[in-house]
């Protein structure tokens, strides 16, 4: 779990799943509640966010799980990922927060339990991983088929639950938006988190890339092997980066927002790109802080767009979830997952798992 603001880490919840009956399809004549393809709705446990706020707003409950609709896959979840975004959702620290009650979670792995009408490219009982717009923290989850991916040979369920969000985010930031190429330089904040560690591994696949990372000092020992230039998150990282690279860097990956956005822009070389993909500075405790929220966004609003073209710099933004609901976005995600899966099979990349928890914990 995230141990402090600005240090998003991947954690997992996993246990023996009692909500799955084993891969099955129930004949229509035996069903009690028929949905679409004639399969039974049934109850399964899930972690439910009952309202925004502290951890006390999370409850393990039994919920009715509908049968998969056309184009959906019902998964027997074996492991589900926990990311810093989940903390922001719990606090309601988002521009358009979902309505509660809701089952959190954006990634999971497990077995195909049932297939909705029209789904032909998966088999019941097949091991898969998935990304979704909420609903992963449950024993059973219905997911659009375009967001379900085969579990590659040798990948555990725990790795499968920690893989999609971090590596999709890192790859799209670096290669699709940042256009990472040989000899470029990158600064990533929260280098000890899931995305930060994915960025480090993907940068290592490109020759001559210089990677700078910020992280709290308590994380340095664990991640020192993945970054040559590791800087304390409370240090003057602008000065530290320029000691090594006086002209600055080509790409800044900013999940902090607020005052760090202006600092990131100041570090960019001409033709460089600063990409905002989070705002963890808004999270300062167990509940939402309106002061931190206002301060962070006010500092972002101070960026002068006229200076961007005068200095030949680019300020971009990225969020994974909206891509999942757009046909063109889902296609991009699928192609990216194919590349990432290939790198995993080759042993080039691996998710960094902070800890493993049972569902009730």
UniProtKB/TrEMBL annotation:
Signal peptide residue numbers: none
Annotated PANTHER family: SYNAPTIC VESICLE MEMBRANE PROTEIN VAT-1 HOMOLOG-LIKE
Lineage of producing organism: Eukaryota, Metazoa, Chordata, Craniata, Vertebrata
Keyword Oxidoreductase among UniProt keywords: yes
A Pfam short name: ADH_N
Organism of provenance: Eptatretus burgeri
CDD domains linked to this entry: MDR3
Key words of the record: Oxidoreductase
InterPro entries: ADH-like_C, ADH-like_N, ER, GroES-like_sf, NAD(P)-bd_dom_sf, SV-ATPase_mito-regulator
Name this polypeptide is given: Vesicle amine transport 1-like
One annotated GO molecular function: oxidoreductase activity
Residue span(s) of domain Enoyl reductase (ER): 53-359
């Amino acid at each position: 779990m995230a141990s402090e603001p600005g240090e998003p880490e991947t954690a997992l919840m996993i246990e023996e799943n009692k909500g799955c009956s084993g891969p099955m399809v129930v004949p229509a004549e035996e069903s009690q509640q028929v949905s679409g393809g004639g399969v039974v709705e049934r109850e399964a446990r899930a972690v439910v966010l009952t309202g925004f706020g502290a951890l006390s707003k999370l409850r393990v409950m039994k919920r009715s799980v509908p049968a998969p609709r056309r184009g959906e896959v019902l998964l027997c979840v074996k492991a589900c990922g926990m990311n810093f975004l989940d903390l922001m959702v719990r606090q309601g620290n988002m521009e358009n927060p979902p309505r509660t009650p809701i089952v959190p979670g954006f990634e999971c792995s497990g077995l195909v339990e049932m297939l909705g009408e029209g789904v032909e490219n998966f088999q019941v009982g097949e091991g898969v991983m998935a990304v979704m717009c909420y609903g992963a923290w449950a024993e059973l989850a219905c997911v659009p088929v375009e967001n379900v991916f085969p579990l590659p040979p040798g990948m555990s369920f725990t790795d499968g639950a920690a893989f999609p969000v971090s590596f999709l985010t890192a790859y799209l930031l670096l290669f699709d938006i940042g256009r990472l190429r040989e000899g470029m330089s990158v600064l990533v904040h929260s280098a000890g988190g899931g995305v930060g560690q994915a960025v480090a591994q993907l940068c290592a696949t490109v020759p001559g890339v210089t990677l700078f990372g910020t992280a709290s000092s308590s994380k340095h020992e664990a991640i020192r092997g993945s970054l040559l230039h590791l800087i304390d998150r409370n240090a003057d990282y602008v000065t530290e980066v320029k000691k090594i690279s006086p002209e600055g860097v080509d790409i800044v990956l900013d999940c902090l927002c607020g005052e760090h956005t202006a600092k990131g822009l100041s570090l960019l070389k001409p033709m460089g790109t600063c990409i905002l993909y989070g705002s963890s500075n808004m999270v300062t405790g167990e509940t939402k802080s309106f002061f931190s929220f206002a301060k962070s966004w006010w500092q972002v609003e101070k960026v002068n767009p006229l200076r961007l073209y005068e200095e030949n710099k680019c300020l971009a933004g990225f969020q994974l979830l909206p891509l999942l609901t757009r046909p063109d976005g889902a296609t991009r995600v699928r192609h990216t997952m194919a590349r990432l899966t290939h790198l995993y099979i080759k042993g080039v990349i691996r998710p960094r798992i902070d800890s493993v928890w049972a569902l009730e914990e």
